[in-house]
Every structure is written in C-alpha cells, then in structure tokens.
Design goal:
mainly alpha; AhpD-like; disordered N terminus
C-alpha cells in the first residue's frame, strides 16, 4: 500500500481508482501540476504509514473505509477494505462497519472515532466541542483527535477528487 519517495505515476492511488493511464487526456490534465498529484499521493502514504504513531493503522483504515462507505465511493471503499483484509481485520468487523453498525462495536474508542467520522462526512457543522468531548470521553488523546480530524479532512478531499475525476471521465467517454 505504501510506496517509495519516488512513486511512479502507476502507483498513484487516485489514478488507479479512477482508471487513469499515462497517455489519457484526463491523466495529462490531472498531472499538469505534478506537485499536486505527488502531494496527494504523499499525504495518502503518510496517513496510512505503519510507522505513524498514535492511532493504529487498523483504526485509520477503518475510518477511511467508513468514510468511503458513507460517501458511496465504492472503488475507494474496496481499496480500503482490501487493505484492512491484508491487515488481518476480521470479516465481522468489516461487515459491521460496511453496514454502518458502529454502535455495536466492542471498542468504545473505535465506535467514537467512526461516529466522529460520520459527523464530519455528513454534517461537518456537528464536528463541534461536544463531538470532541465525546472522543476524549472514549479515551482518545488530544494528539490522536487532531490526527483523526486531519485524516477525515484528507479523505474528504480524496473522495471529492475521485468523484470529480470519475465524472470527467464519464463525460469524456460520452463525448
């Protein structure tokens, strides 16, 4: 999942999920400002690096998977579900998160993180002081809350970018 510092374009997650290939007009448009495409990939690699301290990789991937499920972003959801499977996450947990049954989770902290994710994805205005207090009450440290909020912000960007590119690709095909 994580690539090297000099990631080739073929390793770019957005290109893979949208189905962009070198030589495509849309690929050229996306990579016209290469530093933006590279920064997007580097952000992805950072958020899902096993070396990132604080929130576990499993929890970060579950947050990403749930954000994609909520957003009905099937291709991205499949990517994160596959990453979770590779991490050895049990099928019942994946099914519960995929079905939105987050109140039934054994881990209070994971349930709180997913509820916070849902608020930020569906009604960002509800990501208020009460939402932050709920995370603290679930035992999540302040630095991890900051990481969680930054992760959800990145995921929102990633979701919008892939949706926009998929729409552009559909228009390109119909033209």
């Amino acid at each position: 999942m994580v690539t090297t510092d000099e990631s080739p374009a073929s390793a770019d997650l957005i290109d893979q999920v949208v189905g962009l290939a070198e030589g495509d007009a849309l690929h050229a448009t996306r990579h016209a400002r290469a530093k933006v495409a590279v920064a997007t990939q580097k952000s992805y690699e950072l958020f899902f690096s096993p070396d990132l301290g604080g929130l576990s990789l499993r929890d970060r991937l579950l947050v990403a998977y749930y954000a994609c499920v909520l957003s009905r972003a099937d291709a991205l959801a499949a990517h994160y579900r596959q990453a979770l499977t590779e991490q050895g996450v049990a099928a019942p947990l994946l099914e519960a998160v995929g079905a939105g049954r987050i109140d039934d989770l054994e881990s209070a902290s994971l349930s709180a993180m997913l509820k916070f994710t849902q608020k930020l994805i569906e009604k960002p205005v509800e990501g208020d002081e009460a939402a932050l207090k709920a995370l603290r009450a679930a035992g999540i440290a302040t630095p991890d809350i900051v990481t969680l909020a930054q992760l959800v912000a990145f995921l929102s960007y990633q979701l919008r970018l892939t949706a926009g590119l998929r729409a552009m690709k559909a228009l390109e095909k119909s033209a």
